[in-house]
Each structure stands twice: as C-alpha cells, then as structure tokens.
C-alpha cells in the first residue's frame, strides 16, 4: 500500500488502527520483543513509525525521551504510552500488560527449572556461555542508544560526564539525572540547535511520510490535561497499592519476606531512573547484598534468562523474586514453588504499577509540550546521560564474568573468547541478541564439557 501523503490520508489510516488491531499487535510484541530495551524500542519504532505509520518519528522520540526520564522500564512504559495515545486508558493498560505477561509466565517456569536442574553440568555449561554474551549485549545497548542520541559533542560530553560520575565518583543515579536535566535546560537556552529531539541540529530537516499521529496532529481529547482526571487516577493508584500491601502486612507482618520484597521493589520502581539497565545495580545491591535473596552468580544467571526471553529486561525481578521466595520457603518446605510463584507475581505488580501511573497521569502533560524546547532539551540530555550509565553497567557485568574471583584471581580466558564471539556476531555480523545468546550458549556447553 502506498504511503499516505497528507493528513487526510492519515485519517483514512485511523480506521485501520482499531483497538482489536492494536491488541493483536501488543500481544505479538509481548512474544517477540527480544533483545532488551534497545531491541524492543527499535522493534516498536520499526513497526509503529516505519511500517504502520501510527505515529510520527518526532512524536515517537518525544514519548521515548519522557519514558527514559522516568524511573522504571522505559520500553514497557513506551508501549503503555503509545497504547494510551492511540486508544485511551484501556489501550495503555492493554499495551503495558501484554508487553510483560508472556515473559512473566515464562520466567516463572525457567526460574523453577533453573533451581531444580541448574546443577546439571550441561545446564551450567549453557549459562557459562550466555553470561559473556549478556555482557556484549549490554555494550551493544549503549552503542545503539548512543547512536540514536549522541549526535553532537555537547551530548557526548554529557554521556561521558555521566559515566565518570557513576563509575569513578559513585554518585547516585537520581543526582546524575538531575544534573543532566539542568545541563539540557541550559543547553536548550544557550545552544538550542544541539538539544533538539534526537540530538540533531534544528536545521537538519528530514522528510517522513505522514502518520496517523503526525508531528503537528493535536492531542486527542483524552490526552488533554485535567486536574479532576489526574486526581481520580492517583486515588485509584493509591488503592491498588495500599490494598495488597495492607493484606501482606496483616498476614505476614511488616518484616515478613513477601512484605519486604513488595516494599523493596516499590522503591526500586520509584527511585531508579534510566530504565532497566540503570535499575539493575540497585536491585543487585538490595537483593544480593542487603537481603541475600540470591547469590551474585544467580543474579547474573537471572539476567541471562531475562536477556534471552521476550519482554522488558526488568522482568529479571521475576527471577529474583521467585528464587528468593523459593529459597525462603515462605509457605513451608512442601510449597516452595508456590512461594516462589506468589513472590514473582507480587513483585511484578509492585514493580510495574508506578509505571502505569506515570504514563496515564503524566501523558497529558507530555502531550502538551511536544515541540517545546524548554521541555524536550532536558529530556534529550537525560537520554544522553543514560548512555554513560549503561556503559558503567556493562563494565560491572564484565568484571564479574571475566574475573569471577575478583582481580586478585585469574581471569577466565574462555569467557573472554566467548564474549569476543558475541561482539563479532552483534556488531560485525549484525545478528540479533537472541541468535547471539543461542550460539554462545552452545559454545559455553562445548567449553564446559571439554
């Protein structure tokens, strides 16, 4: 079909973007969204901007930059935002839920298999190969996001500064986000040409076919800000958090394992900015170091499973919760699987509830700002800072994979070789993250058996 060239042509596409068609798309996306946040965002861009033309490039980037600024998983929030923009509140809820539902059930199953059969030599061999590949995939995520955002020296400087701040100075990520936002605001005033959406100078014009929601399409009625609507949403959200938390406290006490898991992941959802890759160090610190729900090796194995299954990478929290609940035997030794499954579902609820509220509540404000540099420039700078944070995370995993006993111990030559194979597959051969993980898993199996 020829691309629509006018807003009238776009309007004719609107009839095709029905809720049923969108529901089928989001369900399909939930099953095929491999490759972590970078791959999922690229897939949504390809489908919704390039192929279906439901939304324009600049409106897509505007929504993405808002989601990158928020605490929580940016890919799932972007799906929720686009679903909401196209089909109101239920469209957003459907998009966000279907984006995570397949991976929730799959990771519960895989976590159980991991605990039940993970000591088998062939299973350990597969994970030995997957871990170096995961490190390469995280580096690729920084490369892909950086390629989309770091279009000029100013944004490069922000990314490098963010890396130094978190790697060398150990500054908390919210402070880095705040600093990047201030730099973007000042940059938007002093060098506005370099803080446009996507980081391109304002005079870099590109032609795009018109879209259902185009650059200059006014926000639909449901996307216009209203104080009463925001108050209703916050009241509903508060109840959806308070009721299950109160039930957990009554049944297990505030110090109960399930209660503390729910509270910890509520904080993770609210306090960690920069998407899934930025939240992982916080989860590692709490789940491994503070509470001891799982070991460092299990955490990296969980990330490997998260990378090799569809859905947002933050779904690794399902693995963390299942392993924690299973090991703690909350319901007794005979009900370890039930304890793990309940913990996984609870943690998923408390992790993603704030994401829906951020999008459904903040979306109308964001829609009123598209094209306004005073709002978009800080978001562009924050996205640039996230690139530096992802590089830091990649180095964090590289250290644990290549030097499993620390720098004082011997480096793992086999893991390094497998990581180099992964780099060649991802960057030179342009293979997908899933294909790379599969090949590296087989290599790990071969090395372990040899």
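-> sequence recovered:
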């Amino acid at each position: 079909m020829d691309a629509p060239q006018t807003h009238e042509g776009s309007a004719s596409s609107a009839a095709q973007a029905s809720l049923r068609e969108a529901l089928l798309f989001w369900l399909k996306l939930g099953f095929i969204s491999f490759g972590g946040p970078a791959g999922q965002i690229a897939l949504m861009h390809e489908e919704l901007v390039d192929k279906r033309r439901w939304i324009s490039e600049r409106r897509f980037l505007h929504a993405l930059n808002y989601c990158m600024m928020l605490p929580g998983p940016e890919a799932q929030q972007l799906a929720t935002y686009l679903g909401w923009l196209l089909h109101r509140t239920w469209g957003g809820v459907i998009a966000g839920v279907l984006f995570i539902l397949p991976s929730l059930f799959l990771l519960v199953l895989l976590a159980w298999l991991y605990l039940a059969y993970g000591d088998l030599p062939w299973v350990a061999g597969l994970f030995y190969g997957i871990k170096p590949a995961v490190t390469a995939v995280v580096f690729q995520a920084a490369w892909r996001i950086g390629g989309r955002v770091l279009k000029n020296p100013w944004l490069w400087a922000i990314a490098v500064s963010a890396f130094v701040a978190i790697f060398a100075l150990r500054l908390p990520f919210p402070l880095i986000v705040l600093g990047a936002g201030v730099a973007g605001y000042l940059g938007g005033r002093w060098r506005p040409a370099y803080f446009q959406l996507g980081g391109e100078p304002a005079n870099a014009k590109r032609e795009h076919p018109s879209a259902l929601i185009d650059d200059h399409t006014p926000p639909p009625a449901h996307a216009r800000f209203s104080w009463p609507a925001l108050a209703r949403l916050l009241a509903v959200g508060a109840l959806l958090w308070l009721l299950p938390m109160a039930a957990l406290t009554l049944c297990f006490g505030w110090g109960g394992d399930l209660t503390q898991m729910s509270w910890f992941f509520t904080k993770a959802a609210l306090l960690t900015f920069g998407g899934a890759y930025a939240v992982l160090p916080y989860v590692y610190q709490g789940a491994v170091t503070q509470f001891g729900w799982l070991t460092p090796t299990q955490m990296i194995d969980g990330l490997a499973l998260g990378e090799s299954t569809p859905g947002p990478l933050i779904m690794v929290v399902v693995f963390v919760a299942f392993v924690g609940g299973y090991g703690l035997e909350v319901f007794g030794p005979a009900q370890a699987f039930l304890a793990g499954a309940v913990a996984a579902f609870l943690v998923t609820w408390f992790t993603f509830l704030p994401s829906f509220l951020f999008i459904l509540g903040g979306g109308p404000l964001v829609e009123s700002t598209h094209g306004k540099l005073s709002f978009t420039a800080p978001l562009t700078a924050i996205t640039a800072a996230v690139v530096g944070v992802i590089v830091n995370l990649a180095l964090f995993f590289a250290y644990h994979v290549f030097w499993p006993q620390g720098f004082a111990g011997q480096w793992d030559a086999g893991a390094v070789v497998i990581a180099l194979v992964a780099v060649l597959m991802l960057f030179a051969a342009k293979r997908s993250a899933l294909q790379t993980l599969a090949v590296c898993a087989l290599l790990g199996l071969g090395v372990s058996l040899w």
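Residues 21-196+222-449 form one domain.
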